[in-house]
Amino acid sequence: MNEKQVHKFVNRYLEATECKILEKSPAHFTVKLSPHADRELTNRPYYWSFVDRVGAEPETMTYLFVTDKQKYDTAEEEKASRLSPPQQDTEAAQDAAANAALGRSLGFIHGSLAAPARVPREDLYFGARKLEQLFNAAKAKGGFVFLFQEPDKRSGNPFSSTPYTAWLGVNMRVEFACDRKREEIHCFGVSLATGHCVEHFYDRLLMHKLTPRLPANIHVTKNGITYNKALGIAEQTLERKLRAYDYGWAEEASARLQEELDRIGSYYEPLIQNALEENRPAIEEQFNQRKDEIRWQYEPRVTASAINCGIFHLEGID
User: Fold this and answer.
1) pLDDT tens digits for 157-189?
2) Looking only at Cα atoms, what is the longest distance across the chain?
3) Could you give the C-alpha distances from 104 to 77, 107, 273, in angstroms and in order?
4) Where are the domains of the chain?
């Protein structure tokens, strides 16, 4: 991910979790977290257990999220250079005079009361710990959605009603693994009215504007199949697709696996035969462990798993 993609993702996350954006630029966000985002990102379980226990009003943290470090630091340096030294000295003298006056009235005061509250800074880039937290939070809360297609135009007849069909959309990851690895993402949509399954369902969703609210003057057709049946249809479609693939890579991986097993066998088998009786079990255990490691590394396998899914209500009856 580049800086623009990180910035766009962070912006969408902050808006989705209803955080209050205090300051924003193409390179940063200064944001006061919402209670939901604070629980996910700040790792303050004791504070939140106290808030939940006594019912107190939560005080969430404020963060500076920098999505483009070079651009942000350059802008800050330019801002500081525009502030002339006499002006800096004047502001420092005013702060010192104010603190001295307060000290005479209230006694010793540590630090400046005019100093702003500390705002932690987090540089967000691909691989950063805090960005990984955002990814995990979005993945945990975004595993399932329930959305409706917004009508392109509102009907002139207030008594008309447009039929919508519910679709189960599933994103599935297929992993082809041996001592090398390759992944594919497949997106299937299954009509809950008819059981019809289509591929590249995500591309179809991009053609529509979706909303979590039920639009006016629409009605949802009755489902003809259950969610489990629809998921089974998607799995069967994926299985038929995978059967048509070329698995020459698996045969080559199996050959490499056998070569490695023969290689370690030629080392360990004479060692076991010539070992003392009391040392033989330890050597055999080590031999079996090495074989398991090599099988895990070289043995070809294909695994499929669901990444996320959702129910999408689209116009028409399919």
Assistant:
1) 666 788 999 999 999 999 999 999 999 999 999
2) 93
3) 36, 6, 91
4) 3-129, 143-247+303-315, 248-299
